[in-house]
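ingest -> validate -> predict -> emit
validate: passed (alphabet ok, no gaps, 211 aa)
predict: started
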Amino acid sequence: MHYFFIFWIGWLVSFLGQLPLGTMSITSTQIAVQENFKHAWRYAIGVAIVEIIYLRLTLFSVNWIMQHKLLFQVLGWLTVAVFLTLGIISFVSAWKQETEKKALLLDNNLHRFLLGVSMSALNPAQIPFWFIWSTYLLDNKVLLSNFTEFNFFTFGCGAGTISGLALYMYGGNWLITKMNTSTKTLNSVMGGIFIIAALAQLYRMIWGKFI
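emit:
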């Protein structure tokens, strides 16, 4: 029973972490709307696998992370540059768009699983997120430092990530269909989210404690 409790704690933390509107969640909506749910699920699985890797890295390698801050700092600045570039290009593409067309990130033949993997990998903010939560849960003895509990917690977090993205897939698809939103508007929204994500990451890099 205790292990199932650990699983659901992991699920809840990860699910709630996916609820705020972000680049990965809105991309899952775009894939569902502009392509199909099969591709959206592949994307979600790719996102979840990388998040699980980041989580395990955090749980088992806190000392290693602290000793290799430079690596995550470089990745953080790379994220700022990539998201800012994608945001600007998305706005320009939406402004010039005269016919219905796919979003910038989807206008390619890249397998959606690999798209999910790459976008999740370019989201190093997951490291401090999981660092804070895992430290809190360990300090309060909710999560014990052993292999079995870490496994249940990790599986729960992976399921929570996929559940959160599924909410955006189906809920977002329903809302956009209901409102008859054009892809031009959706692409503009995506551009805005990229810009906000870039500025939020920039704030963390300059004024916040990223690691």
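The first helix runs from residue 2 to 18.
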